[in-house]
Amino acid sequence: MNKTIEILKNRRSYRDFDENHAISKEELQAILDAARQAPSWMNGQFYSIIVLQQKELREQLVQWNPGNPHIAKSSVFLVFIGDLHRTKMVSTAHETLYPIDESIEPILLATTDAALALENAVIAVESLGLGSVVVGSIRKHGKEISQLLNLPEYTFPLFGLSIGKPTVEMEIKPRLPEPTVIHYDRYQSYAYTLIEQYNQIMEAFGEARETKPWSQKFADYFETKPTMMTDQLLQCQRLLK
Q: Percent of the chain scored above 70 by pLDDT?
């Protein structure tokens, strides 16, 4: 099998890292270079990456995310930022208007670009024989993180990435049945029994972190009234009215 496809198909999340393992400068640079080469709409590159090196900063993030101690224990932690501050600078230099808060489109562009850069980083990490885990829960403290990291207006934290040498081997997590995700030419309806089957597959997989069937987890998640924290942060950062 093609080596790149093999890495992609065998990717998994790791949460236990060797605290004494240091990533070399060359490895870190290779990961960052790979991230920056990701696809980007119109080559806009609407994101930034913050490499958290200070121990105190990472420990503060763990205080806000106690369920993710690997933020401090991994070899390196990256924070991916949706960055529309750069294009604000461009608009100011060209003396043009910047009505960025009139549509959600710029936020989608920045989020997509950051996600693509994140995935490139994840695969680069795997190719180096290291492991990683994406941390989306940092959005729960987006306002505090924005202040901690001195983020300017028109930026917003999206997700983090813990990178290190795994100490616990993880199994490849089963994905949803292909017919529920892959469609040809048009969206195809499928029987709900496929989702019920996936509940059984995940139950047999037996991931300790999962306390509910897959379908129940997301039924409960989307039933809960949104906290609006991200909306409020985007308003503070002048990205939403």
A: 100
- The answer to the question of residue 137 being in a domain is yes
Crossing angle, helix 214-223 and helix 193-205, to 10 degrees?
110
User: Which domain covers residue 25, as residue numbers?
Assistant: 3-172
What's 141's domain CATH number? Answer: 3.40.109.10
User: Is position 117 within any domain?
Assistant: yes
Q: Count of alpha carbons within 13 Å of 31, Cβ hemisphere only?
A: 30
- Residue 228 Cα to chain centre, angstroms: 19
**Domains contained in the chain, number:** 1
Summarize pLDDT for 25-55 with one digit per residue, the tens: 999 999 999 999 999 999 999 999 999 989 9
| Residue 41 token pair | 């709409």
Note the pLDDT tens digit of each residue in 96-109. 999 999 999 999 99
C-alpha span between 195 and 215 (Å, rounded): 7
CB-CB contact of 138 with 159 (8 Å): yes
Dihedral (CA of 120, 28, 6, 197) sign: negative
Give the Cα separation of 51 and 36 in Å (integer).
Answer: 13
d(CA 9, CA 154): 36
Say which amino acid occupies 217.
K
Q: Please tell me the pTM assigned to this model.
A: 0.95
Q: Mind giving me the DSSP string for 162-219? A: EEE-BSS--PPPP---GGGT--SSS-----THHHHHHHHHHHHHT-TT--S-HHHHHH
Residue-wise pLDDT for 62-98, tens only, equals 999 999 999 999 999 999 999 999 999 999 999 999 9
